[in-house]
Specification:
With 177 residues, the chain is α/β, with parallel strands linked by helices. It has one domain: 2-Layer Sandwich (Nucleotidyltransferase, domain 5), CATH 3.30.420. The protein is 50% helix and 18% strand. The protein contains 6 helices and 5 strands. It catalyses: Endonucleolytic cleavage at a junction such as a reciprocal single-stranded crossover between two homologous DNA duplexes (Holliday junction).
């Protein structure tokens, strides 16, 4: 089964693709997750919003067509102090849900608190703890884990790493059912 995790945003939408064994729900879960791909969909701030949303849709559709996910997991909208940002993220989420519907892919969303709790063990985990949790689930001791650390250390892949955390959270929720 292939899971596409998405961290929505209009400036940057992170995505992460992981694969789990098809029979994972019928056996004991042993963190047998395979990292397939991760990255960001970025849109220029000087573009009109409808053009940015169209770019997100087109690029996300390309990701879906390339990796053929069986399910999509996305982070829920968090209403903080900045209402304008929340509205823009909500628009990106709408495009993501539309893309899932157009490709007939089941869609599930999770709060940031759920993702942090499942991946890092605490709903109050900071970004570094979440990223360490992602590496724990996707890395193996030795070279591969160090390679993952090198890729994520620059910070420019924060959104992609968060998307992987969302995908991992989805897998853990599936296994827990």
């Amino acid at each position: 089964m292939i899971i596409l995790g998405i961290d929505p945003g209009t400036a940057t939408t992170g995505f992460g693709v992981i694969k789990i064994p098809d029979d994972i729900l019928s056996r004991e879960f042993n963190y047998d997750l395979e990292l397939i791909a991760y990255g960001n969909i970025s849109t220029p701030k000087e573009k009109l919003m409808q053009d940015r949303l169209h770019m997100i849709h087109n690029e996300l559709s390309s990701v879906v067509e390339k990796y053929k996910p069986d399910q999509i997991a996305c982070e829920m909208l968090f209403f903080g102090a900045n209402t304008r940002t929340a509205i823009m993220v909500g628009q990106a989420r709408g495009v993501i849900m539309l893309t899932a519907a157009q490709h007939n892919i089941p869609f599930q969303d999770y709060t940031g608190l759920q993702v942090k709790l499942m991946v890092a063990g605490s709903g109050r985990a900071d970004k570094n703890q979440v990223h360490d949790g992602v590496r724990k689930f996707l890395g193996t001791p030795g070279r591969r884990r160090n390679k993952l650390k090198a890729h994520w250390k620059g910070g420019h892949l924060d959104d992609a790493t968060d998307a992987l955390a969302i995908a991992i959270c989805h897998v853990l929720k599936l296994v827990a059912k």
